[in-house]
Known about the structure:
CATH architecture: Orthogonal Bundle
CATH superfamily: Winged helix-like DNA-binding domain superfamily/Winged helix DNA-binding domain
Helix content: 55-70%
Structural class: mainly alpha
Strand order of the largest sheet: 1-3-2
Amino acid sequence: xxxxxILGFLFDAPLHGYELRKxxxxxxxxxxxxxxxTLYPAIKRLENAGLLVxxxxxxxxxxxxxxxxxxxxxxRELRRRLAEPGDRDVTDENxxxxxxxxxxxxxxxxxxxxxLRRRLAxxxxxxxxxxDGDRPLRAEELDDPFRQGMLTIARATSRAExxxxxxxxxxxxx
Length: 174
């Protein structure tokens, strides 16, 4: 997801590493802070793969700054990753939000809709954090108010996302 975030933000505009890190951190939030020791090796991998280039600009008051921008191959790679997300990218909420943040860069409405349909199918499957054997438990079936809270919040969030997905798919389809 880090590489997808790098490609996605650089698709929007060339950035220097510090600004890129700030944007990725804002997207990932407190869940997955981005350390320099993680970001810069990922940038180097993408650069070595020919997906981005680094240019040097004079600094405002200090040392020159390295600005990163996507190559045409980097743009194609971002679109490929958006069109062909892995199962975890669709089922894991944090990965899904990263994918969703850049899905607009996938120019094909049918391809966008296909990704959204995968998420919709996942959300329409009965699920819970807690089970009685193979049967998912509902909030009303639990004695623990904290677990009830988890399920109540998750259900409300899922309902809102399902509504958004269905509305967006209708819009993309027609």
